[in-house]
Amino acid sequence: MDMKQLDQQYIAGTYARFPLQIVSGCGALLKDEQGNEYIDMASGIAVNTFGACDPEWAQAVSQQANTLQHISNLYYTNPCVELAQMLCEKTGMKKVFFGNSGAEANECAIKAARLYAANKKGKEYYTIITLQNSFHGRTITTLAATGQDSFHNDFTPLTPGFVYCPANDVEALTALVNQHKCAAIMMEPVQGEGGVLPLTKEFVQAARDLCDKKDMVLIFDEVQTGNGRTGSLYAYMQFGITPDVVSTAKGLAGGLPLGATMLGEKLQDVFTPGSHGSTFGGNPVCCAGAISILSRLTDELMEDVKAKSAYIFNELASADGVKSVSGMGLMIGIETTKDATQIVNECMANGVLVIKAKTKVRLLPPLNITMEQLTQAINVLKTACKEA
Ligand code: PLP
User: Fold this and answer.
1) What would the mean pLDDT of 194-211 be, rounded to a whole number?
2) Which of 217, 222, 268, 344 shows a CA-CA span of 20 to 30 A to 17?
3) Contact between residue 226 and residue 251 where contact means Cβ atoms under 8 Å apart
4) pLDDT tens string 141-177
5) Nearest to 138 by CA among 130, 146, 148
6) Does 223 sit in the ligand 1 pocket, CB within 6 Å?
7) Dist CA 358 CA 35 (whole Å)
8) Could you tell me if the CB of 107 is within 6 A of ligand 1?
């Protein structure tokens, strides 16, 4: 039986996979089982921050795996504490809870906000405003937070207490805040799965002001936008505000499962022993990987991310078959005249892996992709976008 048949026989049918088996890689270059090479413009959906098998990261991870792979949160471990300290020092956040995925990082953010509101204002202040077209994960509560009916339909009843505001609509946001007993406002600074759509500074500032005024919690879901992806360590840094809680995952550990929920001053003491937890959270191997990644997300690298981003925007803005380009840093969505699926398939046939976000082509290359690889990939993409 071939891989596709075995996958169909033994793996739960949640994924529509491309007909491609990737077996190895080096940086932004990936290899399939026949030895064909591909330029990676997706990073395993914004996870492989420095591409495949980055040597420094692999060394840090294997060294920790050969020292201690897990011991549980009943004991102190150095990588976990070191990473939390690094995250706090680089962001100004005060405390970190470690989980294993984006959904869990958001679950923790939601629990933290509800706990804060219950303690400060009363249990009836549980409503969380999220945005229409958002994506926050696939657990029952993060599905409820996700502002897209198509994700909800088969899984009701979801966790109650979520209402949805149109993105960038300050008036609607103000009305919802006044209408409900709210704990928090939660948003992705750039809606990723929703089509790579950045929020406006005005909207983000209005959310910050409303949260200050009503003692609500501003949660930024930086699961996809975080860890250098948008050209700053976290995307909020480019919006001129500081959230109360930042959740992140994906690129944090460069390819290992790790989520982090960073708590600012207001919520730093909200959790007490037993109020939250995770068996694998803060796993030493994952944290060692994250330390290696985070220590290299320098200002210089962020400038490089911005320069590569500008190159992509410039190349694509006036390209044949491209209607619009959106996004921030190396998180880019392209609206095309041709069907995006056709473009993704044509790119793959020509050695370039790109993915989709809704009806757009989405680019999330490793931050260390070389200019030569990027130029080659963009040329293939431009050709694929052209109408025949
Ligand atoms: N939040 C955002 C903004 C995401 O993009 C994703 C995943 O795409 C998630 C949460 C869920 O992350 P995970 O799949 O690691 O649970």
Assistant:
1) 98
2) 222
3) yes
4) 999 999 999 999 999 999 999 999 999 999 999 999 9
5) 146
6) yes
7) 31
8) no
φ/ψ of residue 30, rounded to 5: -115, 155
Q: Predicted confidence band at 1 (pLDDT cuts at 50, 70, 90)?
A: low
**What SS3 state is found at 314?**
helix
Q: Who contacts 109 (Cβ-Cβ below 8 Å, separation ≥6)?
A: 186, 219, 221, 245, 247, 261
Exposure of 157 in the CB half-sphere (CA atoms within 13 A): 3
Q: Which atom of ligand 1 is nearest to the CA of 192?
A: 5
Indicate if ligand 1 lies below 6 Å from the C-beta of 191.
no
- C-alpha 103 – ligand 1 centre gap (Å): 6
CA 122/CA 135 separation, integer angstroms: 28
- Residue 383 sits at φ, ψ, to 5 deg, of -65, -40
For residue 326, the cross-strand partners are: 333
Tokens coding 366: 């490793």
Please list, in sequence order, all residues whose beta carbon lies within 8 angstroms of the beta carbon of residue 300, skipping any fewer than 6 positions away: none
Tell me if 222 CB under 6 Å of ligand 1: no
Please name the residue that has the structure tokens 């590569």: 308
**187: helix, strand or coil:** strand
Q: Give the model's confidence band at 388: pLDDT under 50 very low, under 70 low, under 90 confident, else very high.
A: confident
Confidence of residue 349 (pLDDT cuts 50, 70, 90): very high
Amino acid letter for position 371: M
Residue 113 has which token pair? 């906000």
Number of other CB atoms surrounding residue 71 within 10 Å: 12
Quick one: pLDDT at residue 282? 98
- The single-letter code of the amino acid at 42 is A
User: If you measure from the C-alpha of residue 224 to the centroid of ligand 1, how many angstroms do you get, rounded to a whole number?
Assistant: 7
Using a pLDDT cut of 70, give the percent of the chain over it: 100
Tell me the three state secondary structure of residue 151.
helix
CA dihedral angle for residue 14, residue 20, residue 24, residue 26, rounded to 10 degrees: -100
What's the number of CA atoms in the CB half-sphere (13 Å) around residue 14? 3
